[in-house]
TrEMBL record:
Top-level division of the source organism's lineage: Bacteria
Domain Helix-turn-helix: 44-92
Pfam annotation, one family: HTH_17
Protein's recorded name: Excisionase
Length: 122
């Protein structure tokens, strides 16, 4: 339908045409996946890094010197990235008692089968 064809007599047909166009646009918009926006990695200074990991500056400097914490150095200044610090923290997870017990039962079952198999051979 052309824009010039709209008159009072053609109004119902024009509205029907607009409704179908809107439905088609809505379908296309809903079908499209949301755009993936890449987040910029903004470097943090040592003060911000200390706040994120909850350690004092001397402790962080010691971790850097021992190469235990991910960091970057440009000139005399240290830089950190939040995602790397959070990954570093998550790598230090301690096992719960239930996890330790489950591992022990699993290992005991494997070792018990080996021992019983060897005992039956002799």
């Amino acid at each position: 339908m052309e824009v010039n064809d709209i008159s009072f007599e053609n109004l119902p047909r024009a509205v029907a045409h607009l409704v179908s166009e809107i439905a088609e646009i809505k379908f296309l918009v809903e079908r499209k996946e949301p755009p993936i926006i890449s987040q910029k990695r903004i470097p943090l200074d040592i003060t911000e890094a200390c706040q994120i990991i909850g350690k004092a500056k001397p402790t962080v400097y010691t971790l850097v010197r021992k190469r235990l914490i991910p960091c970057y150095k440009n000139g005399k200044k240290l830089y950190f990235f939040e995602d790397e610090l959070l990954d570093w923290i998550s790598q230090g997870k301690k096992k719960t008692l239930k996890e330790i017990e489950a591992e022990a039962k699993l290992d005991f079952g494997k070792n018990f089968k080996k021992i019983s198999t060897n005992f039956n051979k002799n």
